Amino acid sequence: MITLRTATTTDLPLILHWDEQPHVRDVGGDPEWNDWNWEEELGRDVPWREFLIAELNGRPIGFVQIIDCREEESHYWGTDCPEHSHAIDIWIGEADELGKGYGTQMMRLAFERCFANPLCQHILIDPMADNFAAHRFYESLGFELLGPRRFGPDASLVYQLTRAAWRSGATHA
């Protein structure tokens, strides 16, 4: 059973380890654009972001970030995002945990967190344009392609999951 808990500074060594794994680095885009100061970020409590550790029966296996697109301070998603729009990023920490359905379970838990706010009408994701496995994964969860977008030096595709699609069961694939 997968659960999500708040990431803390005690998770720093694990997150740093996962952040260096080839399967995580390969899909993260330009390292200079995307490198984080995890020690600093884990210590910051901001109302527009959640850092979560996914655990399988109490054992950490992945990471989830949920942000409010409009409130996020760098305005990564732009300044014209509708209120209460959310974006999700996930990692599976170790390569031998891929392909076991854990990412699907993690995303469904993240959907529940986002849509628990009745004002949230959609969730965005931005996989790299050449990450075809991620495109298939997100499409299987009910996300619809909005189109290409460049974030800094990275070419991405933006996908959206609407509350209506989530409610209709599109995420049960």
Automatic annotation (TrEMBL):
<keyword id="KW-0808">Transferase</keyword>
<dbReference type="GO" id="GO:0046677">
    <property type="term" value="P:response to antibiotic"/>
</dbReference>
<dbReference type="Pfam" id="PF13523">
    <property type="entry name" value="Acetyltransf_8"/>
</dbReference>
<protein>
    <submittedName>
        <fullName>Putative aminoglycoside N6'-acetyltransferase</fullName>
    </submittedName>
</protein>
<dbReference type="InterPro" id="IPR000182">
    <property type="entry name" value="GNAT_dom"/>
</dbReference>
<dbReference type="GO" id="GO:0016410">
    <property type="term" value="F:N-acyltransferase activity"/>
</dbReference>
<keyword id="KW-0046">Antibiotic resistance</keyword>
<dbReference type="InterPro" id="IPR016181">
    <property type="entry name" value="Acyl_CoA_acyltransferase"/>
</dbReference>
<feature type="domain" description="N-acetyltransferase">
    <location>
        <begin position="2"/>
        <end position="164"/>
    </location>
</feature>
